[in-house]
Request: fold
Amino acid sequence: MSRPLVVAAILVAVPILSAPAQAAPDAQTLALFNADLPGTGDHPLVGRYGGSVILARTQKAFDEIALPSGPAEGKSYSDNKKFSATVAAQGTVTRTIYVAPQGRSSLEVSANFVESLAAKGFEPVFRCAGDACGESFVSLKYRWDKPETKVLGNNYEHRRKMMVDAVFDQLVDVRYGLYKKAAPEGDTLVAIYSGVHRGGTFGDSSAALQDRVGVLVEVVEPRAMEKRMAMVSAAEIGGNLASQGKAIFYGIQFDFDKADIKPESEPQLAEMAKFLKASPSLRAYVIGHTDNKGTLDYNVKLSNQRADAVVKALAARYGIDAKRLTARGLGPLAPVATNRTEDGQAKNRRVELVEQ
Reply:
């Protein structure tokens, strides 16, 4: 009878490694929490949560913005993710990022904003928290690599720019609400987006934001666009084509995020038609242009649709032979001004007539 095989258990001591502690941020980064961004203040309709500071703020006298009015659909990594519903709004757009003091929850901070808005007559349009907002809500609403979502003013120094990138980088306890106050002159909309910063990949900026609530407050107040671009007459169109090879039009306006021509564009369309009728042998390109907000592919497609809408309007309303005109969209690829300023963006949103 053979002897039983004895297997000895050998225990190897393996050290238990804890995750490295996040390095403490430098004093200059922390100093951003000592005072508001110079030259800024609270929006009078909203106010702030006590102890918070303004990290970034932009205001445009007239702009357009799409605010989520429903949860996000799709996975965060999906190319097809989107908000299930949005409200398109135009007017004076003010966007402010606050950073709350440490030790506060996103629930507490957002609830204070909601209570203040309710007292001023605002009613909820849509609210969500956590999973109810949808997995891809965070990546759609604000991301460091999507310039159109960020609140980045002119001439911010490097540390502030880094903080603007980092503030909504990795969040827990995400909350969002869209609120409306109706009035005869138009609706005022306020969106409140908040979350607790936890983790992040932006070094000192992420460390400084650790366990702080970041809040994005977006306010859209009704206001008519100032008519600052002069209409181009038929005679001026001919002169511009002769001297420059193109004529630029700012008097052709479209609905937000659409290719529908607004009624106030009729005078400019009439002058274009008058010129084309007086020059029956001319063939031209109608070219749509946008600013650089949004993706390249989307802007090229939208600008092409808008150029095509102009061609169709000239043919249907004024009897211009559509075969004489070729629609093309260049999106943001041929700017006439910088896209870093509001005025520059306005100049880049245009329609051109270019001689073939």
